Amino acid sequence: FSLFDKDGDGQITTKELGTVMRSLGQNPSESELQDMINEVDADNNGTIDFPEFLTMMARKMKDTDSEEEIREAFKVFDRDNNGFISAAELRHVMTSIGEKLTDEEVDEMI
């Protein structure tokens, strides 16, 4: 959730959602982003809070775990296309979405 909530206010806006999606190689329109938020925005305030985020992720995980989608996600990280995700590649992608990690944190993730 905190990867999406760039300003740490407890709400994910269309701008924040768009930033993360673009860093992952997607290019949603403003209306597509708003539609994504509207699907789970239970309190109709135009943003996603943590419980709404959990709802969104649960739906996504149920709907989109095809092998092809997992391969596409892997390719985002495997920048040199060698079939492996190195610590440097992981750090690069995480930094590009605004998540600064220490070497120890990257090692733990690997």
TrEMBL record:
Pfam family, one: EF-hand_7
PANTHER family assigned: CALMODULIN LIKE 3 (PTHR23048:SF0), MYOSIN LIGHT CHAIN 1, 3 (PTHR23048)
InterPro entries found in the cross-reference section: CALM/Myosin/TropC-like, EF-hand-dom_pair, EF_Hand_1_Ca_BS, EF_hand_dom
Species annotation: Petriella sordida
Keyword rRNA-binding: no
Superkingdom, taxonomy of origin: Eukaryota
Gene: cmdA
Keywords recorded for this protein, A-Z: Calcium, Metal-binding, Repeat
EF-hand domain: residues covered: 1-27, 28-63, 65-100
Family, as annotated: Belongs to the calmodulin family.
Gene Ontology molecular function terms on file: calcium ion binding
Transmembrane segments: none
UniProt cross-references to SUPFAM superfamilies, sorted A to Z: EF-hand
Organism classification: Eukaryota, Fungi, Dikarya, Ascomycota, Pezizomycotina
The keyword Calcium is assigned to this record: yes
GO cellular component entries: myosin II complex
Protein name as annotated: Calmodulin
